[in-house]
Amino acid sequence: xxxxxxxxxxxxxxxxxxxxxxxxxxxxxxxxxxxxxxxxxxxxxxxxxxxxxxxxxxxxxxxxxxxxxxxxxxxxxxxxxxxxxxxxxxxxxxxxxxxxxxxxxxxxxxxxxxxxxxxxxxxxxxxxxxxxxxxxxxxxxxxxxxxxxxxxxxxxxxxxxxxxxxxxxxxxxxxxxxxxxxxxxxxxxxxxxxxxxxxxxxxxxxxxxxxxxxxxxxxxxxxxxxxxxxxxxxxxxxxxxxxxxxxxxxxxxxxxxxxxxxxxxxxxxxxxxxxxxxxxxxxxxxxxxxxxxxxxxxxxxxxxxxxxxxx
Length: 311
Fold this sequence. Notes:
By secondary structure, this protein is of the alpha/beta class. It folds into two domains: 2-201, Rossmann fold; 206-298, Methionyl-tRNA Fmet Formyltransferase, Chain A, domain 2, CATH 3.10.25.10. Helix content is 27%, strand content 28%. The chain is built from eight helices and 17 strands. The strands form four sheets. Strands 5-2-1-6-7-9-10 form a seven-stranded mixed beta sheet. Strands 12, 13, 14, 15, 16 and 17 form a six-stranded antiparallel beta sheet that branches. The mean pLDDT is 96.
C-alpha cells in the first residue's frame, strides 16, 4: 500500500514513524513550511520534516494545497491513500480525490465530540472523563467524515495537555496501523457521525489562559492542566504576570475571589468563586519554574494579598 503522509507536529511524527517501522511505502510526505521560532526567530523544521529527511523520504512543504502544479505532484506519487495527522492545512476537494482510497485523518478526540483545532485542551477544560482517537474518512467538512475506527482512553486526574497528548500520539499510531490493516483486509467500514452530538474545539487564544478567579477552583485547576505546556496558565499580581504550572484544589476557607488565604511550603492558596486553588509550581516573567515555597522566599506574599481579577 502506497501512502502520502501529511502532518506537522510531534503528534503526527509518532504516527509517521510507526508506519515507516511497519514497512509501509511512504511515497510522499507533506508538512508545513519552516516557521520562525525562538528568540532569534530563525526558521525551524517541523518534526515531520526532520523525520522525512532522516529516512530520505520525498518531502514537499507547500504553503497552500490549491495550486494545480502541486496536484500534479500528488498524482505522480501514485498513492493508494493519504494519511493526515495535525497537518494544519485544509485539503481542498481536488486533493481529497487524488488517492485511490481517499484520505484518512487521525483525530485526537472521540468524534463527533471536539471537532477542530484543540480537542485535547478542550476535553481537559470541559472536565471530560475520557477522550481518545478517531480514524476518520476525510470529506470537505471540519472533521465531519465517517468514523472508521475509535479507541477511548481515560483522562487521569493529573493529566495535562502534554501528558494527554503523548498518550494520544501513541494511541493514534496504533489506531492508524490497525485501520490500514483492516482496509487491506476489506473489513474497514464507515459510520456517519451524529451531528446532534457534535461539539467544537476552536484554536486556543492566549487570553483564555488567564485564570478567572471568579470561576470555581475545579475550573481554574482544569485551566492549569489544559494550558500546560502552551501557552501556560497565568494570573496577575502587583501588575506582573505569574505563570502557574501545577496546582491543586484545596479546602474552601472563604475569602474573596483572587485573595490569598494561606501561604507556606506546600503552596499559595487563593480563593476562587467556589473553593480554593493551591498554586504549587509557578514562574515569574523572565524567571525559571520553581515550587511555590521557593518562590515565596524571594516574594513574600501574605494572606490578604490579592491576585487581580481582570476577567
